[in-house]
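Training component of the fellowship. As part of building independent skills, the fellow (R.M.) carried out the full modelling exercise for a liganded target. The chosen ligand was tryptophanyl-5'AMP. The inputs are recorded below so that the supervisory panel can assess the work.
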Amino acid sequence: MKRVVSGIQPTGNLHLGNYLGAIRNWVRMQDEVAGEGGDCFFFLADLHAITVHNDPAALRANVRAMAAALIAAGVDPDKATLFNQAAVPAHPELAWLLNGTARIGWLNRMTQFKEKSGKNREGASVGLFAYPVLQAADVLLYGATHVPVGEDQKQHLELARDIATKFNTDFAVDLFRLPEPIIPPAAARIMSLRDGTAKMSKSDPSDMSRINLTDDPDAIAAKIRKAKTDPKPLPDDPALLDARPEARNLVGIHAALGDEPVADVLARYAGQGFGTFKPVLAERLVETLRPISTRLAELTRDAGEVDRLLARGAAAARTAAKPVLAAAYAALGLTRG
Ligand code: TYM
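Fellow's submitted model of the complex:
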């Protein structure tokens, strides 16, 4: 039976990279597995968010805002278990148990830690370094079979598989299931609108670099109009976009929005310049995001409802997490209180 698990850091804003790279797949898989008797667990990774400095009041508000954004984007708390990680202590508990299995050498290879710690590695928090072990616990705890994520999380998922395999082998158990990443081909990596070689990210200081799901139609149109491009017309062969990262990104976004191959988009626009392509793309984005931002505005007015839904999800997640956590303690020879 399919068990889908994924998380997102609560930062207030959901951007187009999150949406096309991950959340849209959450919604699709939620609807698919609900019909097959499987289930889905989606959570706000607030315990991950504290590995870099976070203002406590902002973190609390962001958990609620991001939960509302996920529901507005189609995550249905009646079909999927939606909760915040800190409400389920089994996540950090299992992470601690897995710290005995994860190797420092494995964590040293994590590119996201290298990027986030930058030149100040010695000054980075221990949490930022150990972060992928918590992420492994997040999915192994529920016996996830499928984990819908963007390309940047692939390495973390591979680590989760390595930890699971080593634990099962070292303690001669068949406890942890190996999760498969589900990465959408067209939207695996949505790039910044200002730099086609950097991924679209909430940490980019320029808001012009990303489309937020809360942006109004004028903001979306302005961001696409000002998006960096090159003066050449669009080619007819996708391979010719390889050396044109900004053009490739915009065409890729268009393809992802319409769920069609890049080649099909190029077949329609080959020979045309960005003066023609950009307004079409902006219109497409506005159409896709309008229902989401309308629903989000409604939910934002009803914070109590979001809190209630999260509490309900957390109770279900705490129950679901019990068997694997208990088995992990037992496998290690630990007696719990
Ligand atoms: P986070 O919060 O950075 O991103 C949430 C999801 O959005 C995807 N994503 C993108 N996809 C395509 N293009 C982009 N520019 C882009 N930016 C973000 C991410 O790949 C992710 O799927 N560590 C995770 C959260 C996490 C998690 C987990 C995920 C914690 N525990 C367990 C899966 C399973 C993170 O920081 O994602």
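The panel noted the following from the submitted structure. The longest helix spans residues 303-331. Residues 48 and 131 are 7 Å apart (CA to CA).
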